Each structure stands twice: as C-alpha cells, then as structure tokens.
Amino acid sequence: VETVASGLEHPWGLAFLPVGRMLVSERPGRLRLVAADGGLSQPIAGVPSVMSRGQGGLLDVALDPDFTRNRFVYLSFSEPRAGGNGTSVARGRLNERMSALEGTTVIFRQMPAINSNMHFGSRLVFDRTGALFVTLGDRFGQRDQAQNAANHIGKVVRIRPEGGAPADNPKVEGWQPEIWSIGHRNVQGAALHPQTGQLW
Predict the structure, then answer these.
(1) Residue 115 · residue 84 · CB < 8 Å
(2) Using one digit for the tens of pLDDT, what is the confidence trace for 18-46?
(3) Catalytically annotated residues
(4) What is the CA radius of gyration of the chain?
C-alpha cells in the first residue's frame, strides 16, 4: 500500500483526471485537485454549500463521460433545506486553470427533506448511455419509507446529465419517474460492471 496524498479531512470520493491527477472531495465541503506527486491544491471554488454534520457533507464526485470536451463535474452532497436536509446532485464546469467550478447548478434533490445527519447514501455512476445513477440512503429514521416509491428515501435513481428522468427508466405505476430501484438502506458503494454494463 502506497500513500499518494495526505492532509485531507474525511476524503469521500475521487475522480481521475487526465495525466495522473484526481479530484477528491472532503466531507466538510472542500473539493481539491491532487497532483500526480500527491500535492494538494487550494479548495476549488464554486462548490455548493453543504450541511456538514454526522455523515453529511460533500460526498461523491464524478466526471462527465465527455469530460474532455465539456469539462462537467458532478457532485453529490447533503444540502441544507427548509425542513431539514437531503442528498442533492450538482453539476459545474471545471475551468481551464482547474481552480473553480463555473455555473454550478443543482440537477437533482432527494425528496422529501428530512431532519437527520445520517444515511445520505450517495455514489454517482454513469451508465453506458450517459445517464447518471445516484444512490440515496434511507436517512436512518425513515427505513419504512424505502419501499414507498412515491419518494426518494432509500432509492437508487437514474437521471439525465442535465437533470430529469430518462425516457427508458422503469415504468412502474406509482413510482417517481427518476426511480431505478427501491428498498435500499444506505448504498455507499456502486460501480458499473466492465463487461455487462450492469450497476453493481
């Protein structure tokens, strides 16, 4: 095991950039560029405000499949809201100096908001069509809602890169259109199978 970088506070997600660099999220709300030699940048500007308590904060980071052309970066985070908080996903364009996300916009919000510091889930995985999977926790005290497809508690959703539900999502009566699967507790690991393209 080799330490690549140190000095990060609760690093939660990473996304590999060209030429050996990576973006790393820190749960208190910072996004940093890690150089190939392990050097850390100053926090990248343009990151949305997070609710950094308990398990909440800045969570996963993912690059658009067409990042080399559009430079879009996606972040999941616990967003403070009226009535509590919830997992949200934002998209911004990384500038050429890699010092800021520009035009950062929230493209998805887990509903409803819950007053809890636990179980935000929150891995981001692009499928081969360019749609984005987002894993969402049951918020700990709301486990009975994971089977209720009228909300986003304890679900995996699949959204378009700009937000909204793809037309080929499951068509199940009573399900919110973004929902891909229901009945989860707090999915914090997710990946696309390299041969089958299935979400694991």
Answers:
(1) yes
(2) 888 999 999 999 999 999 999 999 999 99
(3) 119
(4) 16
